[in-house]
Amino acid sequence: VRDRDTSVGFGSVRIPEDNREAGSHIQAVAGLTAERTVNLAGILTAALGLVVLFGYHLGKTGLVQGHSWLSPMAYTTAVSFALLGGALLALNHGWRIVSRTAAGGAGLLILFSMIEHAGGHIPDVLALPSVLVAPNTAFAIASLALAMLLLSAGSQRWSSMVIVLGLLAASIGVNAFGGYLTGLPTYGWGMFQPMAIHTSIGVILLSSGILTLSWRGALGNEKRRTVWLVATVLTGGVVTSVSFWQALASLERVHVGSALRARSWMPETVLFAGVAVTALLGMAVHLASVARLRTALAERMRYRAEEESAQRKVALAALTASENLLRSVIDTSTDYIFVKDRNLRTILCNQTFAKALGKPVAEVCGKTDVENGWGPERVKGVPAEGVKGREQDDLRALAGETVHVIDELGTIADGIHYLDTVKTPLRGGGDEITGLVGMSRDITEQKLALDEIRLGRERLALAQKAGHSGAFDWDIRNDVNIWTPEVEALYGIEPGKFGGRYEDWEALVLPEDLDRARAHLQNSLITGEFAAEWRIRRISDREIRWLAARAKVFFDKERRPIRMIGINTDVTERKQAGAALEQSVRELARSNAELQQFAYVASHDLQEPLRIVASFTQLLADRYSDKLDQDAREFIGYAVDGATRMQTLIRDLLSLSRVGTKGKDFGMVQFDEALGQALKNLQFAIRESGALVTHDALPAAMGDSSQIAQVFQNLIGNAVKFRGAEPPRIHVSAVRTGDEWTFSVRDNGIGFEPQYSDRIFAVFQRLHGLDEYAGTGIGLAICKKIVERHHGRIWAESKPGSGSTFSFTTPTAGVGVEQLVQGVETA
Amino acid sequence: MTNQEAMKVEIGPLEILLVEDNPADVRLTREALNSDRLWNNLGVAKDGVEAMAYLRREGRFVGVTRPDLILLDLNLPKKDGREVLAEVKADASLRLIPVVVLTTSTEDEDIVKAYGLHCNCYITKPVDLRQFLKVVKSIEDFWFAVVKLPPKR
After folding, report:
1. Interface pTM (ipTM) of the complex?
2. Nearest CA to CA, how far is A587 from chain B (Å)?
3. pTM score > 0.80 for this model?
4. Cα–Cα distance for residue pair A84/A95, rounded to 1 Å
5. What is the mean pLDDT of each run of 10 residues along chain B (153 residues)?
6. CB–CB contacts below 8 A, A to B
7. Distance CA A388, CA A383 (A)
């Protein structure tokens, strides 16, 4: 910053605020005193003039002359005093016209007087007693009038002149007054008429008024004050010297004239001495003033310097604050911020940038990218392979371009990152490019996420293809339905050819399915869930296909549907498979019903005729027994027996079929309870045969408890039935092997040949004649069927005469599949 | 005269309606009731439609006496026994007549259903002739000697 004030001179040196205030205060006080002084001088002078004029007109010489040996005040002088006193008062009050007129009038009178002195004649128009005045009085009054005129002009230009004129008059007045006091004839010029004593008082009063006014004007200005002082000293000194010189010279002439003394050079000596002293005094005053000024100036300069230093400190603090602000701002950013000079040296960077390089900021600054450890191939590029380096972007920025680099590869401490970088030219004060500013954002995560999304999209596309599905996104408000190419493929449309409006979709749906699909869609706009199936005629091959849709509807705050997103799936194959399954289920259900029907027919309709046959044969035997011979009775016996046995067979067959159809759902079966039930059912046979049945602790397992009891009942019943000579000994045991239980019923009965161990489980297979052991041979077949229903096995081990062991297994865990099969069968 | 016979005399001849499509069974039933020929009067309907006509004395059954007891087989042509049972028990003028279901079926389903339709008892026809005769006899004895029937109108 250049100091613009050094070339400025005194005049415009500004007083510091507080000093100026003090100055203006002093000025104000001085101004007030000056005003009173001037008023007093004006009033006194005017009064003096008027008193003398009264004296002339009333003929009182006392008023004009004071004392007979004193000189009288000239009439013209008295008029001039009256005028000039008024002029001074007017001047003090700012009435310039009045002041000018009065001063001008006084000046004119004195001019007339001077012309008369010079031998001219002025006609006595005013009939005044005399216009003649003493020459020193005339000179003094002329000076005063002129000074007053100049003052009333109000210009600063004449201020020095005013001072000189005022001082001239003052000196003349003081000399004259001094002459009267000292007796030296300094009150007159040579042989001319002398100035009256009261005239001298008037002159002193007027000149002091004028000087006061000019002093007041100079108060605010150091230079004018100095001029004023020097002029005062010089003028006062010179006029006084001249006065004394004249006074001494006239005295000498009187003495020389009386020849009492020889002429001396004393008057001249006094003159020169006076002038010399005056000059020295003037110089001294000037020097003192200058010194004072210098001191003041130095004071001001020191103050200025202090002020500037304070300002500089403030500015420096502001600069530091602004630098701190910049640093905080850039350090707050997670982006990499850097500034490079024209030599591509980093001159400023933020913490993030430095941290990426693993160095402090200070170490990063002043170095190029390569020096900072970035890979040279990334910085400079590999021109041979056409790989553009980062430096090229820097150079473009230095050429004045704003460069935006997306996906810039950067090696950060933990590996390769993707950066989004903007570089702009940095301009100096003269708009020249001094470097570049760069900002890089790490977009690695976004980029990886984007890649992930892209990959996900590809996977989705694959999944859609594999699942014969496609996704759609319907903007309901604007009726824009976006279909993935997969959906279009489902409809047999070329990719991108779907119109995207609701009507375009309706046109594709098979007309007979449209109402249903539409109803589902309408419903979904309320419920938010869309699930429907409809058929289309595929555009590409005119084939009818089943499509299923599942979608979610999105609503706005007023619950108006705005968007539907979902998938379409080709379910034709599933539908066909479903239809086939449905067909099988229907057939199964029908065959089941037929079986039921058969069972019913077997139980009722087949038995009915047998009953009739048996009944009437018996009726025949009863009613006609006396008419029938032995043979006839025997034949009738066989017929009845056959019919009865056939009824039993049918009933047994029915119970066998009921193992599958009438079985209950599986539950937890306590096998000892099931055994207990069986023994209870067999209690008469057991008691009659004297059988002893023992058993191990039996477990619990999943099954149909009444059927398990049936198995125990049949096996133990057989053991009792096929007993030997000994009373039956029967033991029921349970052994766990792996995940199944093996239950065994061992007896000491007649046993059987091992080769029949399979055959005995077949329906109606018997090993003995009907006359030996009763029964249809259904019991073991029923056992086998029940055990198989429980996913177990049944077998028998025996030898004739050494008893038999019948064993069956059941899984330890429950069987869920059974219930499913059960469900299908009963459906 | 036994006590029973005295009671039979007292209430007059019993009107029985047998609803049975099998003539052999009709004959057997008639055989079983024959011993008391004087005290009962057996009407026969061959199917459900006929049974309802008989009960409502319509068509060729105009003038028949309303039965005191109905012996009802379940499996009948045209309208089967279950429907007849339901109609009888739904008809205010017929529902007081006791209905004995007499059938060969031993199906639990049939038994439960018959009682559900408010049959008064369910009897399975025994295979054995003697058993059958005994059962029919006991039906007669039970309903006409033991049970107090609603008064005739």
Report:
1. 0.71
2. 24
3. no
4. 13
5. 52 80 85 68 86 88 86 85 89 87 82 88 82 83 75 60
6. 45
7. 7
